[in-house]
Amino acid sequence: MYGLYERRLSSQIDDNRRPRHIALVVDGNRRWARQAGFTDVVDGHRVGATRIAQLLGWASAEGVEIVTVFLCSNENLTGRPPEELEPLLNIITDVVDDLAGPQEPWRLRIVGALDLLPADTATRLTDAVHRTEGRSGMQVNVAVGYGGRQEIADAVRKLLAQHAEQGTTIEQLAETLDVDHIAEHLYTSGQPDPDLVIRTSGEQRLSGFLMWQSAYSEFWFCEAFWPAFRRTDFLRAVRDYSIRHRRFGS
Hints:
The structure is a single chain. This protein has 250 residues and is of the alpha/beta class. The chain is 46% helix and 14% strand. The chain has a single domain, classed as Decaprenyl diphosphate synthase-like (Undecaprenyl pyrophosphate synthetase). The protein has a six-stranded parallel sheet with strand order 3-4-2-1-5-6, with helices on both faces. The protein is globular and about 65 Å long.
């Protein structure tokens, strides 16, 4: 029955209005674990991790070109107890290693402040990204140690450093500075902004995710916790997006 319903949902998606870039806040792992009776909430992260590759397969089948997945915020790195943070980072690096496997078509990019991560974690993530260079599959951005405000601050810092090297004065930069100059230095530089942002777990907020890039995105909030997120939920989100009239602030 689910297969039939999934095919029906897919057929209802307007081919001319499919999202190119989908971003996801995969929330609710810990709450799912408690609800499922697990004594260790890290088990929720482990089960949620198995959904990532499935999600990418669903997105690829629907013609999505870019997927950005929010796995860990910069606040998580300082706010989570060590006994939860260490296994969480190990789970994330294992997921990224798997996505970089030779059997996978994805091209990976880490979006976040790698300098905030433990050195061994940052190295593993960077090595995994390098292994996917030259692949022709869907672009997958993995947001680790990510914060929207931090991203904008980093972009401005890079912009100022670039112009300082070129000998541009602050006054000259102020006369020409526009939004495109900042966008060129974001973690997602060179990519289109997300058309659709999905958040699981029933929370209706972005938590600083892609603050700059999501200015004109469409949002879809799902009650299911991330480990329970199904292909039917994904297809409903894409179908709903395809029938909306995007206004882009007008």
